[in-house]
Amino acid sequence: MRIEQHPILDFKRGKKITFTFDGKQMKGYEGETIAAALHAAGVKSLSHSIHLHRPRGLYCAIGNCASCIMEVNGEPNVRICVEPLIDGMVVNTQSGKGELK
Amino acid sequence: MRTVELLVVGGGPAGLCAAIQAAEMGSSVILVERSQHLGGQLIKQTHMFFGSEKQYASKRGFDISNILLDKIASLEKITLMQSTTVMGIYEDGVVTLEHKGEYIKVLPKATIVATGASEKTLAFPNNDLPGIYGAGAVQTLMNEYGIKPGNRVVMVGAGNIGLIVSYQLMQAGVEVAAIVEGGPKIGGYLVHASKVRRMGVPILTRHTIKSAHGKEVLEKVTLWQLDDQWNGIPGTEIEFGVDVMCIAVGLAPLSELLWQAGCQMKFIESLGGYVPTRDENLQTSVKGLFVAGDVSGVEEASSAMVEGYLAGMSAASYLGYKLYNMNEVKENLLNQLDSLRHGQMGEKIRKGIAELQIEHEAAASVDA
């Protein structure tokens, strides 16, 4: 759900790039965050609460609330609302708290 | 260990103006910003600002941000560190930073904390469903990345943010089903309220969210009316099928660093929660530690900018840099703040700030 026409803003999107989300190939733009690219593709359920496994989505979008943490390139607990999307990234839904290596 | 005269934490309107003012007076400045972009929340504000010309009234937020960033780029005294998070402030004044996995220590002679505020949330069943966003998140998605949060929204809160973001949602092509306000009156400016009402959006005062519904994502919202004691009235429920709920019930200062630094803090409801005591020059109870913007009390971007200039000038003066007409400039900034804090809402803010005033010995003040 990208906005193509806006009365005030003109969105300058970067190069089209690809990444995978839970094994599926997806497209996004250079310069946007992982959360933005997932949202544009209609993915709203991002993480799950630790005990009751309730779905959680984007709440603050500025790196405060940790409602959007995912596993990115094997690293757990990445706040995808502030993490820039990079070509070839591997993004996965995280289960549990993640492990320190 | 890096040393610097002034460390500014936060690259939003307050931090940018603080850095500009201090650098123009001769101080070396490191400006640290957690995000990869400078400008804070200004960059997603598409509406024209009020206030006076001095605070860039009638310009849109993102244009103001560009003006400030051009100014910053022209000042050699300022070192920018984006994508950098402050981890802690220690007793000996050392501030630790994290930048892309690297751990950095800085020892500044003075620090300005301008970390801003974060969105408050609201308690109701299923308030954690995906599709329920803070108003700032909706602005980030729409105005920064050009992405619609969904198709139909219920807005919670009829303060200025709730009203303005409702209008922005409509500009992006999202239907606004209703604006819900718990209080008996619309909190925001009438000009914003009439704009959304003219577009056919009902503003339901004395109503709140009873419950959200949905399995994986938000599907439906139940509202109900509130009595004078803020209790829901059974039988008054209204349902809206929506895939977005936007929560605009205010902000809370991001004051962690101030607590850690040992600043004296007080709870002032009208300023958003715990805020630091400070003197007229925005110096906190910790010598050499200044504050500006929402972290010192939630207001608007216009007052954050003026506070930024004031804190920047105070910190530069504390470091020994003076202006020949410093008292005049200070008086002018204080007058600007006074005029921004007019009206009923401003009255509450002024009262709150009055409770926070402390005095420092003359040596630490601008007038010294």
Automatic annotation (TrEMBL), chain A:
<dbReference type="Pfam" id="PF13510">
    <property type="entry name" value="Fer2_4"/>
</dbReference>
<keyword id="KW-0560">Oxidoreductase</keyword>
<protein>
    <submittedName>
        <fullName>Molibdopterin-dependent oxidoreductase YjgC</fullName>
    </submittedName>
</protein>
<dbReference type="InterPro" id="IPR006058">
    <property type="entry name" value="2Fe2S_fd_BS"/>
</dbReference>
<dbReference type="InterPro" id="IPR042204">
    <property type="entry name" value="2Fe-2S-bd_N"/>
</dbReference>
<dbReference type="InterPro" id="IPR036010">
    <property type="entry name" value="2Fe-2S_ferredoxin-like_sf"/>
</dbReference>
TrEMBL record, chain B:
<protein>
    <submittedName>
        <fullName>Sarcosine oxidase subunit alpha</fullName>
        <ecNumber>1.5.3.1</ecNumber>
    </submittedName>
</protein>
<dbReference type="InterPro" id="IPR036188">
    <property type="entry name" value="FAD/NAD-bd_sf"/>
</dbReference>
<dbReference type="Pfam" id="PF07992">
    <property type="entry name" value="Pyr_redox_2"/>
</dbReference>
<feature type="domain" description="FAD/NAD(P)-binding">
    <location>
        <begin position="6"/>
        <end position="308"/>
    </location>
</feature>
<keyword id="KW-0560">Oxidoreductase</keyword>
<dbReference type="GO" id="GO:0008115">
    <property type="term" value="F:sarcosine oxidase activity"/>
</dbReference>
<dbReference type="InterPro" id="IPR051691">
    <property type="entry name" value="Metab_Enz_Cyan_OpOx_G3PDH"/>
</dbReference>
<dbReference type="InterPro" id="IPR023753">
    <property type="entry name" value="FAD/NAD-binding_dom"/>
</dbReference>
